[in-house]
Task: structure prediction
Amino acid sequence: MKQLTTIEEYILLSVHHLHNNAYLISIRDYLNEKAGIDLAIGSVFAPLNRLHRNGLLTTVSGDPSPKVGGRAIKFYRLTDSGKEALRERQEVMDTMWLGFRINDAKG
Amino acid sequence: MKLKKPPKFGMTVLDTFLRPYDKEEVIGSFELDYDRIYNEKGKVYANSWFWKQVYRSIIPLIILRISWGMIMFGNYLKIAFRNFKRNKGFTFINIFGLAAGISACIVIMLYVQFELGYDSYHKDSGLIYRIVQEETTKNGIQYSSLTPSKMGLLVKDNLPQIEYAVRIDPIPRKPANCSYADKTFFETKVVFSDNDLFKVFRIPILSGDPSDALTRPGTIVLSETMADKYIGNKDPVGEILQVNGRELEITGVFDDLPENTHHKYDFVWSIHDLDADSLHRGWWFGSTTHTYVKVFPETDIESLENSINDLVSGFIEIRGDFVQSRRFFLQPVEDIHLNQGMLREAEPPGNPQYIFIFSTVGILILFIASMNFMNLSTARSIKRANEIGVRKVAGAQKSQLFRQFIGESILLTFMSVVSAILIVIILMPFLNNYFEMHLQISDLAEPSNIGGIAVLMMVTGFLSGWYPALFLSSLKPSAVLKGSVSLNRGTFVRKCLVVLQFTISIAMVIGTVIIFKQIEYMKNESLGFDINQKLVLRYPYRPHPGSFWASVSPLYQKQKLVKAEFLKHPSVSGATASSTVPGRTGYPDTINPIDQPDKMIPIGVIHADEDFLSVFDIEIIAGEKNIINKSLSENEIILNESAVEALGYRNPEQIIGQTFNTYIISTVVGVVKNFNFKGLQSSIEPIYLSSRPISNMNIVLDLDTGNIDEAISFIKDKHKEIFPNEAFDFYFLDEYFNMQYRFEDQIGRVFRIFTILGIIIAMLGLLGLSFYMVEQRTKEIGIRKVLGANVLKIMVLLSKGFTKWIMIAYVLAGMISIYTIDRWLRNFAYKADIGWYYYILPGVIILVLALLSVGYQIFKAARSNPVDSLKYE
Result:
């Protein structure tokens, strides 16, 4: 499977953590809050849209809500491919990060 | 609660870069967040936040949009190719037809560029001029491109506006014998020039020093091809080349000149060797040189011309009374090629009318091909009605579909363009050969050409595709699914297109035929003698056995015998012996009335026997009628009209019986109509004919058409019998002469090819169309058959439709061509007698071809089983 970029990885994870409440704005806020990544709306949308296009995410339409002035919100969910991609990434990370300590880096 | 909306302008900007599908999500999110921040932190903060967001979002959104675009494009391509595969036949016809049209355009484009760009190769070509003379003579004004030899030096030294001046002298008539080591050849492209040649013209020097390559006598520079030919791998500079027996030092090698220069040469010999020659000292005899100057920028040309004339007036003598005055002009070098008014050009000029004609022809062909394309696309796409219905139901927008179909059209066009370019590349050597052109593919790579082709592609694709695209994207799904989409919509337009195509094709055929006739007529008419089917056998002089100094032709004393033998073949209807043939110069003599040496004029001589006039069909206009077959005695001569005029006689009858001094004293016994001895390029000079058998070295045979090969082989055998040791040296006069008419020949060929092309494309169109038209009527045919019609009746029925439209096309074509041809023929003083059948015949031929091409379809349809066609009712 093609390698995920960092931001794509974080977006997938955000979607995972946000359960059924992952949409453009909430994902952006989550990234900001949890990872300190402050991105513009469009900068989140682009990778998000790509992930959707490549089948790692799927969308569910929410009910039209007065909050958004009548429009339906698009909620994102992980697909099986998406989960698979995260699993792979986790494996790779575990292998690469295994036994790393800050002190080692300073050497 | 009412939402606070972010600045509209910013939203519009965002909106532009979003896919319609994403708009709701992204715009909605922007609005939501904006509203929140506005409420929390106020308007100013919100706006600044907003703009920052826009600024940071724009690039990722653009990139996203582009990546989507590429994916969509890829999808369209896949669908398009799938469609092409499903309809292989039609796609092929479509592409081939359009490719044919586009290749024609490309070739024409290259040709036009070639002609128009003559001599633009040189640096600052706008500043280079040739000095030409306008001579006012008793016959009117004529222009000559030659000037006195010393002109160049004179103007350069005395006129400050002139930066450089160069003289180019062609080598006198015979080719030069060049040799180096063991390689000897005859070269015709040898000129004399001085060192300023390199300053005036752009001649890249590959070896040697351009600043003094030709400054000394006894030096020569050659082109790269020639250097390879003679010297091979060594550096030619410093080597000795023998030319006509003289040893010349090679002082330089230049890169071959491009083909579109008017003065083509392979060798440049230092003109200083010629300066010593007496011909170049005087001003009267010295008009043998082409003089070119390069002026400084912003020079006033008119005043420079006046200065030149003032300067030169002191030197010019006007001798004799043929030329009354001379004036010199400056001709821009780029104008030289397309100017037909000059005498004694370095090479025959091009014809600007033809550039116009070919461009028009090219556009017409492209037009036919595009219409074809449009027709076929429309017809073919009916089959896709189902696909469209389904997609529309699934939510596809009309504009989306429209764009997709246009895209397919452009894709097809693109494939056609690529095929066209390939076709041109592959055929280029043959085309160059057949049309005697020198076009190069590499010229296509010029940015302007690439741009032009790209534009052509887009425009053609769009124009050919918009109608079917519009038609298809407008189909209502309900109609499609019910099955009531008929082929009838748009049929009228399609029929109109076919009619238009055929009109153009028919008009072109008529045009071609007529132009051809006119040109042939002109060739024969202006020649004043019959040049067709004349076989010339050469018997050049050989050293006479038994005589140290005399040389004589093998024909000597055998002429009657030889002629009689050749005449034995049924196809040989005439034979004559002569010293020379039309196309080669008669040898020079002079003539003057007895006791009036001051009235001497130069005159050319042809020695011939009594059959010359009849074999060549030359008209006698004064003298006894039996002159034609009479054998002249030694001191009887026949003059041509030109000679009569030059000797001062108004009425040819008056000169009969007069005596003159030629190399002997001769009496005029007849006058013939002028015949164009040297070809259309030269004015008709005075000539006399007389009989001097010892001079005859040619036998000319008049052959009938048909069985030429057989006749030639008979003649060859006879020749071997009579002259066992002589080579069989023969040629056809018209082929030889046609080198002079290369131009008109080219035109004829071009027209022929393009007409055939036009017809093929139109046929292709008809073919494709007929398939659908017939399919559409299958049910009708089925019903008719059930009701009792037989195959023949049905074929006639179907054919009638086509025939009607072609008739209309033919009438239109007839009107157009009559009108245009009439206007074209006004250019010519002599009009060919064109029978009415030349107008009818093309129409009939095309009708027959058209019927043949649709015939098979019709036949198949007529024979089809009604059961099959009515099955689905």
